Amino acid sequence: MLHSVGFKKKIPLIIKFWASGSFLMIGKFYKIEGREHFDPNRKYIILTNHSSLFDIMGIMSICSKVSWFGRANLMQIPVFGKVLRIINYIPMQTTDLKNTKDMVGQLIKSTENQTVAIFPEGTRTTTGNLNRFHKGFLHVLKASQLDILPVTLKGFYEFKPKNRFYFNYPVKLSARIHPPISFKGLEKLDDREIIETVRAHIESALI
User: Taking Cα atoms as reference points, which of 95, 102, 100, 69 lies closest to residue 84?
Assistant: First the structure.
């Protein structure tokens, strides 16, 4: 039991080493901008754009103590799926409202001391532009009442999109951490306004 507890305490360090090491292994420098907006002692809902399998490593290089809420098919990816099983990943089997609420309940219960990360697009872009934002993250937001930390991942689509097999090595990889958006500032807005607010922050660094 003590051994298990000790291992769990080391997981964030292991995850950060794995995430940062992944970029070193492929010979890429990963620049993170706006670190002053991220307080490692606070919990957030990290919302970010999704264009590559390296997106998760990009976020975990910023925040290693993070749980993910997303599609169940990611659990089937070799090696990567095993990593997701180690962390508090909550797979969403279907997209109906009841299932989403059940998943949110599990996530809130199992991540009392962790930041939550979500791809609001749901799936990787095939054009480089942001896909439509799904409403699943709104349930997490309202259930947790955490502040949102928007993050824009840049260069990841150009480097390795899902519809191309090779890496484009000259491309620069970076992340822009935006100032947090407080829950109190969002709770009076309707769903469409919240989505537009978050999307505008993420999209602003892609232009």
Answer: 69
pTM score, whole prediction:
0.84
Expressed as residue numbers, the domain containing 31 is: 2-204
> Residue 192: in which H helix or E strand, if any?
helix 191-204
| pLDDT tens for each residue of 137-158 | 888 888 888 999 999 999 999 9
Main-chain dihedrals φ then ψ at residue 86, nearest 5 degrees: -70, -40
- Total count of domains within the chain: 1
Number of residues that this document lists for the chain: 207
- The SS3 assignment for 123 reads coil
Q: Rounded to 5 degrees, what are φ and ψ at 111? A: -130, 45
What distance in Å separates the CA atoms of residue 175 and residue 52, rounded to the nearest whole number? 13
Pairing of strands 44-48, 115-118: parallel
In sequence order, the β-bridge partners of residue 66 are: 115
- Are the C-beta atoms of residues 13 and 64 closer than 8 Å to each other? yes
Are the C-beta atoms of 113 and 88 separated by less than 8 Å? no
DSSP string, 87-141: TT-EEE---SHHHHHHHHHHHHHH-TTSEEEE-TTSS--SSSSPPPPPSHHHHHH
Alpha carbon distance 31, 42 (integer Å): 22
**Six-digit token pair at 3?**
């051994």
Distance (Å, rounded) from C-alpha 144 to C-alpha 104? 9
